[in-house]
Structure formats: C-alpha cells, structure tokens
Amino acid sequence: MKSNVLLVDDDPFTRKLFENLFRPGGQIDLVCVASVAQARQAFGLGDFHLVILDQRLPDGNGLDLFAEMRQQRPQQTALMVTGHAEVRDAMRAVRDGLFDYLTKPFDNLEALEATVAKALEMDRAYREIADLKQTLAAQAGDPIIISRSVAMERLLVQMRQAAPLDTTVLIEGESGTGKEVIAKSLHALSPRSSGPMKVLNCGALSESLMEAALFGYEKGSFTGAAKTTAGYFEEADNGTIVLDEIADMSPKMQVSLLRVLQEGTFVRLGSTVQRPSSFRLICATNKPLDQEVAAGRFRADLYYRINVVPLHVPPLRERREDIVPLCLFFLDHFNRKFNKQAGPLQADTLALLENAPWAGNVRELKHTMERAVVVNSGGPIASADLGVHSAAGAAAVAAGSAVPNQLLPYRQARLQFEQAYFSSLMQAAGGNVSEASRISGVARQNIYGHLERAQVVSKS
Ligand SMILES: Nc1ncnc2c1ncn2[C@@H]1O[C@H](COP(=O)(O)OP(=O)(O)OP(=O)(O)O)[C@@H](O)[C@H]1O
Ligand SMILES: [Mg+2]
Fold first, then answer.
1. What is the DSSP letter of 144?
2. Distance, CA 427 to ligand 2 centroid (Å)?
3. CA–CA dist 331, 147 (Å, integer)
4. How far apart are CA 372 and CA 337, in angstroms?
5. How far is the CA of 132 from the centre of ligand 2 (A)?
C-alpha cells in the first residue's frame, strides 16, 4: 500500500532532497507545499500518513501548524525538520506528540529514511488499531489477537484451518505468548462456539481436585462431597475443554484422560454409570511435550492422542514487528479502562520497547503498558515512564556491578563500562546513530568518538 506524505517546507533544497528520496513509482506519494496556508488547504483535503514540517515558514511557524493539525486529527503522525539552533523547540514538540525531528543539514540519508519509515510504521499501527476497534464493535466478545509479524500470521492461518475441524489441538509456547487467546479463538471459530468452553489449569490443582473437577462426583463419594456435582466432561458436552499446562498432569490423571478420549464416555466419582460426552479437547503447554515424553514424565500414547494438530506460538523476541501494534493496542485498552489520555509513545520509548528482551512475552508487555498508563498524567509517554530494562540499561548495570568485586584502575573500568554500554546502545538503536544519540542523550557528533574509543567501531 502506498503512503501519502505531506512536506511543508519553503526551502527548495529540502524539497528536492525529499523528491529524490521518494521518487515517483515508489511506495510514497509526496505532496510538497511551501507555506502554512497551502499546508492547511492540503491537509483539509487529503489523508496523510505522515506530515513533515519545517519549523520556520514564510507565513507562520511549523510547531503551531502541527498543533492545529493535531486538533483536527489527534493521531496525526508528524516529523519536524529543524536546524541546530531550534532543536530545543523540536524536543519540546516531541513531548507534545510530535513523533520525532530531523536535523538539518541531512548528512545521513540512511538515518533520515529510517526515521521516516519508523514514523510511517507508527501511523500504520494507529490505523490498524482504529480498524480493529470497528471490527470489534461488530463482533463483541470474540478474543482479540494482534498480529503483524509473518510468524504470527502463519500461526493464525493454521489456527483458522484447525478451528472448524473437530480435532484435538496442542498449543505450545513460552509463558505469556498468548496460548490462551489462541485457544479461545479456536473455540470461537468452531461449530461448537455456541457451546460452553471450560479451562482447567493442570498445574494449579492437586490430583484429587483435578479428578473431581473433570469427572464430577456423586454426593458422599468422598469427604466434603456434599452434593452431586457435574464435572467439566459433562458440562462441556458439545463444547470445548482447554487443559492448560498439560505437562503437569499426574500420571494417574493421564491414564484417566486417555481412557475418556478413547471411549468417549466417563464415570462420575462414586458412580458406575457410563455417561457419554462430546467435547473438543485443546491442550496448552509451555514445556516442550516431546521432551517430557522423552524424559518419561508424559505418556507417549496420550501425547500422540493430543498432538493431532500442533500449534506453536513464537516468543515475542522472535516477532518484534508485533511489538508496536501490541503497545498501541494496550495503550488504547488501558486508556479506556482507566479513563486516561496517555500517549502517544515517543520515538525513543518505542525504540526501548522494541528492543527489550520480553522474557515474559506479551503478558509482560501488557503489564508494562498498564503501568505506563497508570503513572502517566496525560501526555506523551517517555522512556523513563516505562520501567523497562533495555539491553543498554542492563549492560550498564552489569558493567557497574563489576566494580565492587574487583577494583580496576579507573581508565580500565571506564573502558569496560563504555564497551558494554555503547555496544548495547547501538544494538538498542538498531545501528542508527541519531537514535543512539537520543536514547543516550550523548550529542550525535560525539557518538562516533565514543564508539571508537570503546572499540565498538574501528577507525576507518
Ligand atoms: N496477540 C495478542 N493480541 C492481544 N493480546 C494478547 C496477544 N497475545 C497475548 N495477549 C494477552 O496477553 C496476556 C497473556 O496471554 P495468555 O494468557 O494467552 O498467555 P499464555 O501463553 O496462555 O501464558 P501462560 O503460559 O503463562 O498461561 C493475556 O492478557 C492476553 O490477552
Ligand atoms: Mg495460559
């Protein structure tokens, strides 16, 4: 899809540069105007994915124009073109919702292109979330799965193929990756969607409680069985049972479950009556089940029975393209939940989010956004509001903690720190020096010196 970009700049050189950068026939349609008046007109008529504004215009100021545009379209993504003298104003504008700024002269075209690409990505994510909200209003109640990455799209294709079939599905993936949302979607998209869905966590219950919960029991069948109670096998008839953390199921329960799956009937505890039940089984695990089988902790025959359609949910670090849309989705979600107006996310905040390790996957990201909204007093979210440990931050802490153990000479200690810090910084910045400058607060022209001293890059 093509992107529409509005450039507001009276300087012919800048216009030429952008015209060359976004050559006709490429992915970007560029509209150039030279004044505030022309910009107002163009903005009123068109829908622009990105506005690039010069700060000083013949008939006004780019910052005021930006404020005006945001009144008309609060989620307008914009970049400011700024000279060194005016960087302070641009930085202030970032705090008011400007996505980022570009410093003139443009000596690094790659960085310029990267910033434009990032801004367009941000706009795309905003639009996707807006579309999604409309779809959601239409089908309220269905689980929401945000996906942008190829890996996630592939998984969703498999999920949609498996949903209408009545087979058992095994969902594998690290904790917090979204196994439960996948399980809910499988049920929602199946012919059993009007039937019940029951979720049981096999790790959370003792063997006897688990047995009672699944099979149900007759009054008096054990101490405390005050009245006859139906279990999940009974309640989920014509519906779906999700067994979460299936790897934690005891050997005895594994045998009982296998029997129910083979025979399609079950017996309540304390009864002898065979009762039929038609349920669809979905299992989820964050331990690779084949390894559990190899280690003798999980029955091979049950494994083959439940591993009919395996779905693997990849960890978030292997699908970083999903991070921006997930952040915007949760930002919107918690803004509504807490009746707040936090946002937008500043460029350095995004960089931090995109590069964090996310060991706790989507759940950790969700909690991070919740915290950011809670502490925000209305306005852009700065990286400091996140409490996320970036790779750079972690390395700096690690380098710092080496000091008390072995007190190195100062120069050596500093070198060690700088090496760890600047290599992580460049990683976090995706190799982009402007980005690195913003994350670290070190002036851009000084970054190279640091990188060379720390031997992150060699002198050429
Ligand atoms: N792709 C996604 N889009 C929107 N929300 C998601 C997505 N993936 C996960 N979530 C949300 O993140 C949280 C964690 O997901 P979920 O509970 O499904 O993870 P899980 O893999 O089952 O974790 P665990 O192994 O710890 O049980 C939930 O609140 C879920 O709604
Ligand atoms: Mg789960």
1. P
2. 31
3. 16
4. 13
5. 24
In terms of CATH architecture, what is 150-313?
A: 3-Layer(aba) Sandwich (3.40)
Task: Report the CATH fold assignment for 317-385.
Answer: Helicase, Ruva Protein; domain 3 (1.10.8)
Question: Do residues 163 and 186 lie in contact, with contact meaning Cβ atoms separated by under 8 Å?
Answer: yes
Two domains, one topology: 3-134 and 317-385: no
CATH of domain 3-134: 3.40.50.2300
Q: What was the pLDDT predicted at 241?
A: 96
Mean pLDDT score, 73-93: 84
Q: What is the C-alpha to C-alpha distance for residues 57 and 90, in angstroms, rounded to an integer?
A: 15
Task: Give the mutation target among 170, 172, 180, 282 for probing the ligand 1 site: most ligand atoms within 8 A of CB.
Answer: 180
CB crowding 211-220: b at 16 or more within 10 Å, else e: bbbbbbbbee
350 C-alpha to ligand 2 centroid (Å): 27
CA 415 centroid distance within chain? 35
Cite the beta strand spans of 372-446 per DSSP E. 379-381
pLDDT at residue 450 is higher than 50 = yes
Per residue in 423-437, pLDDT (tens digit) is 778 777 777 788 788
